[in-house]
Amino acid sequence: MPPISLTTFVDFVIKSGTPRITCVRDAKKLYAEGYSPVFDFWKALREAIVELQREGRPKSVLSDLLGPSVHPKKRESYAQRIESYRGWMGRKDFEWTGCRSVLWESGGLSVNVNPELGMRIDGEEHVIKLYFKKDKPSKRRLETMLHLIGTTLPAEKADATPGILDVKRGGLFTPTVAVADIDALLVGEAAAFVAMWNQV
Fold first, then answer.
1. Which residues share a beta bridge with 118?
2. How far is it, in rounded angstroms, from Cα 93 to Cα 158?
3. What is the DSSP letter of 177?
4. Is the Cβ–Cβ distance between 166 and 80 less than 8 Å?
5. Which of 67, 84, 113, 165 is spaced 20 to 30 Å from 145 by Cα?
6. Domain limits of the chain?
């Protein structure tokens, strides 16, 4: 089976019962069809945020995404998140340090852990995954994502703080306390995902 995205795996982990089967079935269909930017709603904003931070551009450049050719629904969603992201940036000092994707592997499952932002924020190193969804990220989602990012940090980022940036609400989440036995849980979840993938 191909590597799956961090989002796909975490969506599976936080579900229970038959919705887990639906999650795997949908993922199998998606990966069989291949990636298409047409269905990646947040692609343009995600890439613009990365470019802004990497190149040290002014926050105002994000407004370039809100032109008249953009569908009104997309423009509204983008505008709200752009405003929140600018608010989160505030007067913080940013220094781009870069980041890269790493595979987390267990029991025949490979998960592509792909934080978008690697940078020092007011002097402290962070590796951050952008979260664009409408719903506020749940405690379990945050714990799982932060743990997977933290345990796959490459050697050159060993001292970085993993983070999830809720772009809609302009809030950065970082680990607070260690979650007991989360490694054992994720190994079990990986095995369950593979088993269901092979059955649907």
1. 127
2. 21
3. S
4. no
5. 84
6. 4-40+92-197
Burial class of residue 18, CB neighbours in 10 A (0-12, 13-18, 19+): exposed
Under the phi-then-psi rule, with left for phi > 0, alpha for psi from -120 to 50, and beta for the rest, what region is 108?
A: left
H or E segment at 4?
Answer: strand 4-5
Q: Measured between alpha carbons, how far is 43 from 197 in angstroms, rounded to an integer?
A: 27
Segment 59-91, tens digit of pLDDT: 999 999 998 888 888 999 999 999 999 999 999
Residue with tokens 């079990």: 188
Select from 50, 88, 44, 85 the least CA-distant residue to 66.
Answer: 44
136 close to 166: Cβ distance less than 8 angstroms: yes
Order of strands, edge to edge, in the sheet holding 109-113? 4-5, 109-113, 102-106
Nearest to 167 by CA among 90, 41, 81, 44: 81
Residue ranges with strand state E in 107-160: 109-113, 117-121, 124-131
pTM of the predicted model over 0.85: yes
Decide if pLDDT at 35 tops 80: no
- C-alpha 137/C-alpha 139 separation (Å) is 7
In whole angstroms, how far apart are CA 168 and each of 9, 77, 78, 158?
22, 9, 9, 28
The rounded distance, in Å, linking the Cα atoms of 48 and 11 is 25
Of 180 and 183, more confident: 183
